[in-house]
Design brief:
The protein is 53% helix and 10% strand. By secondary structure, the protein is α/β, with parallel strands linked by helices. A four-stranded antiparallel beta sheet has the order 1-2-4-3. Strands 6-5-10-11 form a four-stranded parallel beta sheet, sandwiched between helices. α6 packs across α7, α17 (467-486) packs across α20 (527-547) and α18 runs antiparallel to α20 (527-547). Bound molecules: arginine.
């Protein structure tokens, strides 16, 4: 169904045309002076020059054609030539009832659905997940859901960092601790054990130990590098250890992401792309794209319009080793072969922007992707602590994701118990649901590219622009609806009625904006705008709630009309938080 802005724009175009002006002037927007009007059109100003007429007169001519329209309660012309519109209560109610009948609240599927791959999460196997990976998971998950909601074919790929030096470090440390394992016996040609030689907690301890040791011990570092080399060149024993690391680590990652309500369609990684490298390198050479620079194979990607230097894409080091650029290019080869995506979106720390500029240019220039394939870098800022520095534990160490979640859950649990509306067991469960909303909303309500301050006290507050406030509002609506049912009411088939007062109308206007807001969120890949929208929606609902007797309204039809509006407001709120990647509890 058409969004309300589209519908009003059609009316406006008609009015311009009838008055003898070009329809292209008829652009309607949400008002930036909600105290004066709800929608506005500034087209008369734009037409003044062309028609050599005062904008005010043009606006008057146009407005004369709108006075009869059923859409509007008022059409005011304001100097120098604004047309200010207020929607009629009837048409607002009519629109809301149409929205309610639509499965996706009036959002239309993309006419030509595209295949969009989202590269997000990007954890490094065997290294503990830390808060830096949190943003990628949270933003990527929401972006995935938003693009999917519009009817596109969306594939989320975790793109594991599973092929690097950390693997060599673990192998080296394991060899030091358990030299008798068959993986280290070159002569061994039997079956390797099925049981992994470590548990997840051991693995998590092995990596930091090895990494710290390698920094001090040159010989050990060399050995780890060599182990990485052997692994990457197919040495059987190391390949078997790699499999163990992957199994143990991926099982643990799956658990962690599940807790975050983050779901990947593909669990591919850097290792999967390696098989595409030899042919790709050959193609780059044969096509005349690559050249040798001090022994390294590179592809130039500098463009004339650049005002700073963009270094060449590094394909192979002088010792023949592949690099981060190489892996990302080979991954595009793989994606092109398996999915032919129309677009690939990378949700990665913005400090990696240059890397992606190089990769995208190289992929385009060499035909690894088709000319029409969109490659998009969605870079996010750093999550800082209250001191404005990258988020740390109280002791100053790198904050593990698990500890962060535990801290938030604990804080939420305390708050929920203070309210004393639920029992302890339920409070634990609820604390997790609300805690996740606190984290995700705290993150997503900021424009992704900006740094932000992770403030546990603020994010867990039930008041203000926070996840818990949004959930609290939803829970409040649920509780009203439940009481309505307990009193014998039925929620099916209710119709929203034309608003009779300002609070009701304001709430309606906010609800019916949903599909217009969604389009903007989708066009701009901007979850933060969805947050801003539901914050306002929650505010409008709470104002209405405080000013209106809902359940105790004596007029049965009016009461039913309120309930219909609440049912719809709840659906809109729940749809939005679903797109943001969290959900509401029954009570809190
Ligand atoms: N594993 C990388 C890191 O931790 C992020 C991967 C991002 N995705 C990509 N295709 N390079 O920095």
């Amino acid at each position: 169904m058409k969004t309300l802005l589209e519908l009003i724009t059609i009316e406006m175009r008609d009015a311009f045309k009838k008055a003898g002006y070009g329809e292209e002037l008829a652009k309607v927007t949400l008002s930036n002076r909600p105290d004066l009007c709800e929608y506005q059109c500034n087209g008369a100003m734009a037409g003044a020059k062309q028609y050599k007429k005062a904008p005010f007169m043009i606006a008057e001519d146009v407005a004369a054609n709108l006075k009869e329209s059923a859409y509007f309660e008022s059409v005011d012309v304001v100097k120098p030539g604004f047309i200010n519109l207020k929607l009629s209560a009837q048409s607002a109610a009519l629109y809301l009832n149409e929205m309610a009948a639509e499965e996706k609240l009036g959002v239309e599927d993309e006419k030509a659905p595209r295949t969009v791959m989202i590269d997000y999460g990007g954890p490094n196997v065997a290294k503990p997940l830390h808060v830096g990976h949190l943003r990628s998971a949270i933003i990527g998950e929401s972006v995935k859901r938003i693009i999917r909601f519009k009817g596109n074919h969306v594939i989320g790929d975790i793109h594991l960092g599973d092929w690097g030096y950390q693997m060599g470090l673990i192998i080296t440390e394991l060899k030091k601790r358990q030299p008798d394992l068959p993986y280290f016996d070159e002569a061994f040609d039997g079956e390797y054990p099925e049981e992994p030689p470590f548990t997840i907690s051991e693995l998590e301890e092995i990596y930091p130990t090895a990494s710290a040791y390698a920094k001090e011990n040159e010989e050990y570092r060399e050995e780890a590098l060599h182990a990485t080399y052997l692994l990457q060149n197919g040495y059987r024993g190391y390949r078997a250890i790699w499999n163990h690391i992957m199994n143990v680590s991926v099982a643990d990652l799956k658990k962690n992401y599940e807790k975050l309500n983050v779901e990947f369609d593909l669990w591919k990684g850097e290792a999967d792309a390696q098989q595409y490298i030899p042919d790709m390198v050959q193609m780059l050479k044969d096509g005349g794209y690559a050249r040798y620079d001090e022994g390294a194979l590179v592809v130039d990607v500098q463009e004339e319009s650049d005002n700073k230097e963009v270094p060449p894409c590094m394909i192979l080091k002088s010792d023949g080793a592949a690099l981060y650029d190489t892996t990302d290019l080979a991954t595009l080869v793989e994606r092109e072969k398996d999915y032919r995506p129309d677009e690939v979106i990378y949700v990665v720390d913005k400090r990696q922007e240059l890397h992606f500029t190089q990769v995208f240019r190289c992929a385009k220039k060499t035909g690894i992707v088709r000319p029409e394939t969109e490659l998009k870098f969605l870079g996010f800022g750093t999550m800082n602590g209250k001191d404005g520095k990258p988020f740390k534990t109280r002791e100053g160490g790198v904050m593990r994701l698990e500890s962060l979640i535990r801290e938030i859950d604990e804080e939420m649990y305390k708050k929920i118990m203070d309210n004393r509306t639920v029992e302890e067991g339920e409070a634990r469960q609820t604390a997790q649901t609300v805690g996740l909303a606190a984290i995700k909303y705290g993150d997503l309500s900021n424009q992704a590219s900006k740094d932000y301050i992770f403030d546990v006290d603020r994010f867990t507050s039930f008041e203000g622009n926070t996840g818990p406030y949004i959930l609290y509002t939803i829970v409040r609506i649920k509780s009203i609806l439940n009481k309505y049912k307990e009193n014998g009411g039925c929620l099916d088939g209710l119709k929203v009625r034309p608003a009779e007062n300002g609070y009701e109308k304001a709430l309606m206007l906010q609800v019916l904006k949903f599909n217009d807001v969604f389009e903007a969120v989708y066009e701009e890949t901007a979850p933060h705008r969805l947050c801003a929208y539901i914050y306002e929606l929650a505010n409008e609902f709470n104002k209405f709630y405080h000013e209106t007797k809902i359940l105790s309204e004596e007029d049965e039809e009016r009461r039913a009309g309120y309930i219909a509006l609440l049912v719809l407001a709840k659906r809109v709120l729940e749809t939005c938080i679903g797109l943001l990647g969290f959900e509401a509890p029954e009570r809190m």
